């Protein structure tokens, strides 16, 4: 089981695997069991956002045990949280902000 930190800019916290793009994050979710997933929304100009990762999670059912949102985009955070809370199983922990720290 791994922890995944999706971000194209911020440094990766200790104990996490860094995914710099939505595609890297989706590959990790596809091939690994993910305990904690921390999502950024904006991943570079013209690149898929964290919302694409959440859509992938919903579509394939590969949910992490816990999900945090460290994005600085309030609108992006709300879109990701809304989509995830609409579809996630009840036992998935969805935190409405970043990891405590």
From TrEMBL:
Domain (Cyclic-phosphate processing Receiver) ranges: 2-85
Domain of life: Bacteria
Alphabetical list of InterPro entries matching this protein: cREC_REC
UniProt protein name: Cyclic-phosphate processing Receiver domain-containing protein
Phylogenetic lineage: Bacteria, Bacillati, Bacillota, Bacilli, Bacillales
């Amino acid at each position: 089981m791994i922890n995944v930190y999706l971000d194209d800019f911020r440094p990766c916290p200790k104990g996490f695997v860094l995914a710099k793009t939505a595609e890297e994050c989706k590959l990790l979710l596809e091939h690994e069991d993910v305990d904690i997933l921390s999502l950024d929304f904006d991943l570079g100009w013209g690149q898929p956002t964290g919302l694409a990762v959440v859509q992938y999670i919903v579509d394939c059912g590969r949910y992490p045990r816990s999900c945090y949102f460290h994005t600085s985009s309030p609108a992006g955070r709300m879109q990701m949280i809304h989509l995830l809370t609409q579809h996630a199983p009840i036992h998935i922990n969805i935190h409405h902000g970043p990891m405590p720290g």
